[in-house]
Amino acid sequence: MKFRFSLLVLAALITLSFSTGKAQAQGDKIYEKGIKSTVWIVVSKKGTMGSGSLIDYKQRLVLTNYHVVTDAATVSVMFPIYDPATKEMLKLREDYFEKLRQNYGYVGKVLFAEKKRDLALIQLSPNAKLPAGTEAVELADKSPNPGERVHSIGSPGASKSLFVYTPGNCRQVYNVRSLVGSGADPSDNFEVNCRMIETDSQVNQGDSGGPLFNDKGQQIGVTESFSSGRAMSHFVDLAEIKDLLKEHKIKLTPKNDSDKKDLAKNESLLKPLKEEPKPTEEKPATPQETEKKDPPKKNPASEKDEKAAKQQLGFIKSMLAVGQKDKARDRINKLLKDYPDTEAAKDAKDILKTIDQ
């Protein structure tokens, strides 16, 4: 009897080991496929970060959360970067911050952002040359069933790395109505009322907006929120994504790119982002007009310096958002040294006071 019981235990352990190994192998494949369409999003205006997915290569459309972009008109978008020498993907967050400082990445225009579904669509310039190997993720035909395995990729603020893989299982799919926000500022809170996928995935802040995949590597949801202290997370369901695109009359480009008529319907979305208008030449002022004008400010900062300082300030806010106070302090001191007469320098001084308190 004991011998038979031992055999049953051994068989169970072998089955469990086989299942775990199979799931791990599946996760490896999903990550390898999904990383080609996953992006990191930085909103310099607010110093916030999130994730997203490229859902249309031809039209350069990126899907994310409303609460990642909020009221921003443009955002910075970065795909995984590979070391040309080793061919390995850069993993550390600081490496990507450094690349941003070197003007790597893409400017994305927020086409629309919807609070109710907590979804937003970003468009990169159609003329932008995307990294080699980049692919658009395919949307699945149907939502997951309870018990199905799911996989997500994002860039959690708690991690020093970007493009992190998280496994999980679908628990249920149902409509959720709740208040979403940081809690620090009530004005940032908004109500979400849409169909959600509940999973046991352990996602974190910063994963928001990233894709949720099924075992085929197709997107079935968008990372939306998590419950602190509990292995329970919510993802905006596939049905909401499709309804959003339908309501805004956006038809995704077919994989074989043969349907030219459908592509032509989205012509308005295929125009490059408008460049900032060039300053118009002003007529020389008369002596009388010159007297009326205020005296010029001392050492005014150039437009180029203002822009560069503002970008640095965005990086500083991003660092503070993930708790990197020491690095933020060093970056502030550098900003004050390089661009002392800019408006961003004034804001940086105020931020420095709060850090040192």
From TrEMBL:
Q: Where is this region: Disordered?
A: 254-312
Q: Which InterPro entries match?
A: Peptidase_S1_PA
**What's a Pfam family in this record?**
Trypsin_2
Here the segments flagged for biased composition (Basic and acidic residues) are: 254-265, 272-309
* Superkingdom, natural source: Bacteria
- Signal sequence extent: 1-25
**Is the keyword Hydrolase in the record?**
no
Ordered alphabetically, the record's keywords are: Signal
* Protein name stated in the entry: Trypsin-like peptidase domain-containing protein
- The protein's organism comes out as Telmatocola sphagniphila
Give the classification, highest ranks.
Bacteria, Pseudomonadati, Planctomycetota, Planctomycetia, Gemmatales
